[in-house]
Amino acid sequence: MNTETTAQSPLRLAVIIGSVRHERFADAITGWLLTELAAIDGLEADPIDLADVDLPLQGTRPGGTETAISARLHAADAYLVVTPEYNHSFPAALKNAIDWHFTEWAYKPVGFVGYGAGSGGIRAIEQLRLIFPELRATTVRDAVLLNAPWTRLGPNGYEATEGERAALAGTMTELDWWARTLRAGRVADQAGAA
């Protein structure tokens, strides 16, 4: 990804896939999301699949550590976290990935797509809303909640409802506003420091 940023540059969105299970529904959801995101002008989506990233549970240092995905997270203007709800929470691999990094998250917005059997992932998302502000990230109010999405898997992948598509549009509108606003602030800070 190009790391040079101007006010007119496309927004760089890191789509973080939080499930690392071998049998997972995240692939179908991510396929749907990337198709929807590709239709948004001025947006570059970069899917970061935590199942493909080696982040051990040991070795993190205070203040973060450079990893195979550090540069991609740093280059992002915003994040869209795709998280299942496991046992009323989010996956350990997702918390581990968050903890391996520090400055990458600062002054950037985070949106959420959650999924689960009965809650649509809301409990996982609400817990993540407590974590990201500690890293100086801003979580957006709107979110996409997919309740039992495996019941809507068709021959062409995940078949979202109108309500889910509307929730994604609302989330992306809010994420876009925060991403552009916070990017302008980061650019102004860099210009002032130069």
Polypeptide structure, described:
The chain is α/β, with parallel strands linked by helices. The chain has a single domain, classed as Rossmann fold (3-Layer(aba) Sandwich). Helix content is 36%, strand content 20%. The chain is built from 5 helices and 8 strands. The strands form 2 sheets. Strands 1, 2, 3, 4, 5 and 6 form a 6-stranded parallel β-sheet that branches. Strands 7-8 form a two-stranded antiparallel ribbon. The radius of gyration is 16 Å and the shape is globular. The protein starts with 10 loop residues before the first strand and ends with a helix. The mean pLDDT is 93. This is NADPH-dependent FMN reductase. It is an enzyme of class 1 (oxidoreductase).
Can you summarize the main beta sheet?
6 strands, parallel
- Measured distance between first and last alpha carbons: 23 Å
Helix content: 25-40%
Portion in beta strands: 15-25%
- CATH fold-level assignment: Rossmann fold
E-strand count: 8
Question: How many whole angstroms does the radius of gyration measure?
Answer: 16 Å
Principal-axis shape equals: globular
Q: Count the domains.
A: 1
Q: What is the overall number of helices?
A: 5
Q: Could you say which structural class the secondary elements and strand pairing correspond to? A: alpha/beta
Low-confidence stretches: none
Protein name: NADPH-dependent FMN reductase
Organism: Amycolatopsis speibonae
GO molecular function: oxidoreductase activity
Domain NADPH-dependent FMN reductase-like: 12-147
